[in-house]
Give the backbone structure.
Amino acid sequence: MATTLAKADESVDHAARLEHVSKSFATPGGQQLVLDDISIDVAPGEFVTLLGASGCGKSTLLNLVAGLDRPTVGSITTEGRPALMFQEHALFPWLTAGKNIELALKLRGVPKPERRGKAEELLELVRLQGAHGKRVHELSGGMRQRVALARALAQESNLLLMDEPFAALDAITRDVLHDELTRIWAETGLSVLFVTHNVREAVRLAQRVVLLSSRPGRIAREWQVDIPQPRRIEDAPVAELSLEITEVLRGEIRRHGQH
Amino acid sequence: MASTDTTKTVLPDAGSVEAGLDALESGVVGRTPFRQTFVNKILPPIVAIAVVLAVWSLLYPVVDNPSKLPSPAAVGGAFKDAWMKGELLGYIWTSVSRGLLGFFFALLIGTPLGLLVARVKFVRAAIGPILSGLQSLPSVAWVPPAVIWLGLNNSMMYAVILLGAVPSIANGLVSGVDQVPPLFLRAGRTLGATGLKGVRHVVLPAAMPGYVAGLKQGWAFSWRSLMAAEIIASFPDLGVGLGQLLENARTASDMAMVFEAILLILFVGIAIDLLIFSPLERWVLRSRGLLVKG
């Protein structure tokens, strides 16, 4: 029933394991089922996107995996506390870009003398060397999300949860950040669970796409994406698979209009 | 992205596109030139003061009764006399030291109280409404009970300041905490800032704008309460502050001195705000990008 942390001596063959997870919320009209019997394994180093239309409970699911909420039924196992990135950058405006990262390091217990150097390294990883002293409002949307990514990476969790992190960015910036995320994922060997409603984005990034149906959120279908990286969002194989997934997604959405 | 040879040349390309985007989207921020600051910020209040003086000078011969409306020159003379006798700074210091010390105590009490009300549901339900109600109670109402409880002394002055300023400071912090975006709290929790760490690293810094607004108002209330206390409870042993100066002027029917005292009370209140609280507020807002130049 509860979120349990894997012990060190257990052999871990997954970065996150969701077993028959259901979640319902109390509403004035009674219990509302948001997630229904979700089972997903994310292998170490795997990149999985969760794809779904509105009302599929994507964000609820990420909250559960992040440990911010508890499932009503089922169990979720992660190794340590996962890092979480939001659609809004959620950087603290009273701190500089670098200090935001250093706060994450501090809360993880990294001793003070090491923090500055580590923060600089992480900024370099997201190609923002020299931005340590910048205020959050001085950065562009894309730069803010990269600082947010660096702050999430500062947690040194081996699972990174991303809740539509690029949805509010313009297309060009989003494209560049896809490249960055792919590069950083390959460099760090992180497992990523990435939530989006953008089919092409899902195919562009993931090794596996999991489609959720809406109200309640159930796993509708899964696709392995065998297109080699680096991919571009306008590549023909990406477009082809996106088309196929979109058709299934539309079918799922259509069912809701036919009550 | 010049090359359409899609899959191969992506990675080196990405970095340079990114650098270009960063450069395009980062504005250059410089300092405002002094001339502009002068025209926008310094000149308008000087003009306003000049207009007030002009209207006053025109009105003086019309009223033609120095015991009701003294001339600007007579008020200036009252300032000069007090300065020459070496008493002017003494009046100011007596009141300012009381006011700031009282405010400091109010800060020490109001801050934890505000945090408690903001974070503990039971405390909020119990004293939250009283605390905001107290803000609308004129602090002069506390002077009679304070005199009866504590007598005519400095502690009575401090008590009145506290009762005036603590609710403002606490309420400012409460509204600051209430306005912390839930996203910051979620982000803080995923980073491991829970419990007291969450309060220290997320809640308090995020609540700073509301807190500083509360401090500003708290100072205004401190100063008002103190003046009320000094006017009502003037007693020779307490030393002459600005409130007593005003009361002494009234009993002496010296209208120029009355004006002098009122102007001093006004200027000191404004000066403390301009020297301490406004810069603090601007610094807090500017560092968060909340002070956008029009």
